Amino acid sequence: MYIRPVQHSDLDALCVLAKNSGVGVTSLPDNKQKMAAKLEHSLASFEKTIPEPERLYLFALVDEENDEVAGICALEASIGHEDVWYNYHVGKSVHASRDIGVHKVTKTLYLSNDLTGCSEIATLFLMPDYRKDQNGQLLSRSRYMFLAEFPELFGPEIIAEMRGYSDDNGDSPFWESLGRHFFQMEFSDADYLTGLGNKVFIAELMPKFPIYVPMLSPEAQAVIGKVHPQTEPALAMLKSEGFDFNGYIDIFDGGPSVSVKVKDIRAVKESHVYLAGISEKTPAPNYNEKHGLLLVCNRKLNDYRVILVNKGAAGDDTLWLTQKQADILNIKEGDTVRAVALRPTEAS
Catalytic site residues? Predict the structure, then answer.
């Protein structure tokens, strides 16, 4: 399995991924025209034909044996430029009266555009049949290698919006208690419109005044900042790299936003540049050894590639690869590569 930028020929595969991603993954709309537009946007970004703040980098996880696209992930250079970026900021309102002995702190939600201009780590989805052999780790963490190699293309801070809680039927308690009162549509419909980039209705219909959290249903209050069960592993992965809750939630499902300075991401800080050597004695990666693997990327923008190799392949200054691994990375002996441990050493 390896990571590469998306290509023109990937459109049908991306549409399959979008169809399988389900409700809540707004960056993968089940709409071929929109997915084609995202694909073209990414291609233009890698070709540097659009301004840096507008760039979107889409990466595919590919099965080398059959050339099947098994997953997708993305990096967005700067959010909120083409489309207005909305979140709720989770704050506090204090009401106090010394005369009657009242001091009440109430949690509030303020409609906000505060995260405009941040870079974003986004659009992570892996097909169920490929959720094995550290493929999810490879797909998610490969983006940090791109950030380490090309930091000048991104802002100093990067965020990730996490899919909020919804039940087995796709219903969101947060939406039912809040959004439905203003939008009068199903959560899945609002979610779909947002994925298509139709966000004007948010500004037109959302209340501009703070929402007092105690006025929401107990079920809605309980899921503020809570992720969907299927998203918990992704959140744990982000936290292990240094991301943390930043006080903002999604306006539709209440899912948390997490952020970190790019320079403080574990994989960015700990990655090293090596000379590539070729040796058929290089040990094969063991996917059952969680802490025995390295992420390795070439240092090319347009033909960016990432694979997993055995930690034993790393010497002091040289990273030893088999000829096949070098071919997948599209490098030759003597080129430089970047590598880092797939997982932080303290992770379980």
Answer: 228
pTM comes to 0.88
According to CATH, the topology of domain 271-341 is Barwin-like endoglucanases (2.40.40)
Amino acid present at 1: M
Dump pLDDT digits (tens) for 252-284: 899 999 999 999 999 999 999 999 999 999 999
Residue 319 three-state SS = strand
Report whether 318 contacts 274 (CB < 8 A): yes
Nearest residue to 227 (alpha-carbon basis) of 113, 124, 78: 124
How far apart are the C-alpha atoms of 94 and 308, rounded to whole Å?
A: 51
Least confidently predicted of 104-113, 151-160, 179-188: 179-188
Our measurement of the distance from residue 242's CA atom to the centroid of its chain's CA atoms, rounded to an integer in Å, reads 14
Under DSSP, the state recorded for 176 is I
Enumerate the H helices of 107-240 as residue ranges: 135-149, 173-174, 180-183, 187-195, 200-205, 218-222, 232-240
**Domain ranges for the chain:** 2-87+113-266, 271-341
Decide whether 2-87+113-266 matches 271-341 in CATH topology.
no
Beta strands in the chain, from DSSP E residues, in sequence order: 2-5, 56-63, 68-76, 87-97, 102-112, 119-126, 157-161, 211-212, 244-249, 256-261, 272-278, 293-297, 306-310, 318-321, 336-341
Q: Cα separation of 104 and 92, whole Å?
A: 10
Domain 2-87+113-266 sits in CATH at: 3.40.630.30
